[in-house]
């Protein structure tokens, strides 16, 4: 204890204090990071929760250095991280609900489509959305006994226990079909369901976070949803981005994340072997999320995700 009463505790660890302050400012002001340079802002926002791992490292180093200044400076990143993500740590899962949905990027190279389809159907979902479909017939065969109605548009598909109407592709400016819109006639009334697979993003040494095509598709999808006449809307799919990513704002600003509202934890869905980000989303409008969860791993590189809402 005498070591901590020494006046030098406020002089030691200045570098650690500066690093702690910079970490806190990075999380606090992440929306100010420019996207013009390699989409730096979106890249940071994709993995923003993981910046919190630096906090315990800096804490241990501050103790080793016996630096009161560094410990005080750590308050900024701690408070900021808790403010941003503390609400996701609690279990907000509720009971009830009358409409369950699930979505899964099944992976175009999936070696066992049948078992993957059955695993998603085992969630009990009333509506299932699948993305990155190639061997469509095997998914149709595996799901036929559970879902009477289905439609595949391009590489995305929807399977439903309730009748489907007005199924049509949605133009997300790709030149081929990776999104659809359908009206699901539930016992509680019609629900507009969108299934989308936005373009992939890449992290390149010479170009940074290459997400231009995805961002253009997000704008097109956002316009389609904004023009949707139905009051109740569900978006299911692989958006190749998180709810924190500002570039998805044309979509996320209109809808509510089921995981954020009624999930337990972060609900990371990719990569399946060690999930680090939730890029597979279930978002709603005009309905209340009751619970949201990730499903067990399949033969895909994504985890399936599901949610139950109250219509």
Write a brief caption for the model:
The protein has helices at 2-5, 14-28, 40-46, 54-65, 68-73, 75-85, 113-121, 136-143, 212-226, 249-252, 258-262, and strands at residues 99-105, 127-131, 149-153, 156-160, 164-169, 179-186, 189-197, 202-204, 208-210, 233-238, 256-257, 280-285, 288-294, 305-310. The protein has 311 residues and is an alpha+beta fold.
Provide an overview of this structure.
There is one protein chain. By secondary structure, the chain is of the alpha+beta class. The chain contains eleven helices and 14 strands. The strands form three sheets. Strands 3-4-2-1-14-13 form a six-stranded mixed β-sheet. A six-stranded mixed β-sheet has the order 5-6-7-10-12-11. A two-stranded antiparallel sheet has the order 8-9. Strand 6 and strand 7 form a beta hairpin. The protein is elongated. Keywords: Endonuclease, Hydrolase, Membrane, Nuclease, Transmembrane, Transmembrane helix. One of its GO terms (molecular function) is endonuclease activity. It comes from Streptomyces nondiastaticus. This is Endonuclease/exonuclease/phosphatase family protein. InterPro entries: Endo/exonu/phosph_ase_sf, Endo/exonuclease/phosphatase.
């Amino acid at each position: 204890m005498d070591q901590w009463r020494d006046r030098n505790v406020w002089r030691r660890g200045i570098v650690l204090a500066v690093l702690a302050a910079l970490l806190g400012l990075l999380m606090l002001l992440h929306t100010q990071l420019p996207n013009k340079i390699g989409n730096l802002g979106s890249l940071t926002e994709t993995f923003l929760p993981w910046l919190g791992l630096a906090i315990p490292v800096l804490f241990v180093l501050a103790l080793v250095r016996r630096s009161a200044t560094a410990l005080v400076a750590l308050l900024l990143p701690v408070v900021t991280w808790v403010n941003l993500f503390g609400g996701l740590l609690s279990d907000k899962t509720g009971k009830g609900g009358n409409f369950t949905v699930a979505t899964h990027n099944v992976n175009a190279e999936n070696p066992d489509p049948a078992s993957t389809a059955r695993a998603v159907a085992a969630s009990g979902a009333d509506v299932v959305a699948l993305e990155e479909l190639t061997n469509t017939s095997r998914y149709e065969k595996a799901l036929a006994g559970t879902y009477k109605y289905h439609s595949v548009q391009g590489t995305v598909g929807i399977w439903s226990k309730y009748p489907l109407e007005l199924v049509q592709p949605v133009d997300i400016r790709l030149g081929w079909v990776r999104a659809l819109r359908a009206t699901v006639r539930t016992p509680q009334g019609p629900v507009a369901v969108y299934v989308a697979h936005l373009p992939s993003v890449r992290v390149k040494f010479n170009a940074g976070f290459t997400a231009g095509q995805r961002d253009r598709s997000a704008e097109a999808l956002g316009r389609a949803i904004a023009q949707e006449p139905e009051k109740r809307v569900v978006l299911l799919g692989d958006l190749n981005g998180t709810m924190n990513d500002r570039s998805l704002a044309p979509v996320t600003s209109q809808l509510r994340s089921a995981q954020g509202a009624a999930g337990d934890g972060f609900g990371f869905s990719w990569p399946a072997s060690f999930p680090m980000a939730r890029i597979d989303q279930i978002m709603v409008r005009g309905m209340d999320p009751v619970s949201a969860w990730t499903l067990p791993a399949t033969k895909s590189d994504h985890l399936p995700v599901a949610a139950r809402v109250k219509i």
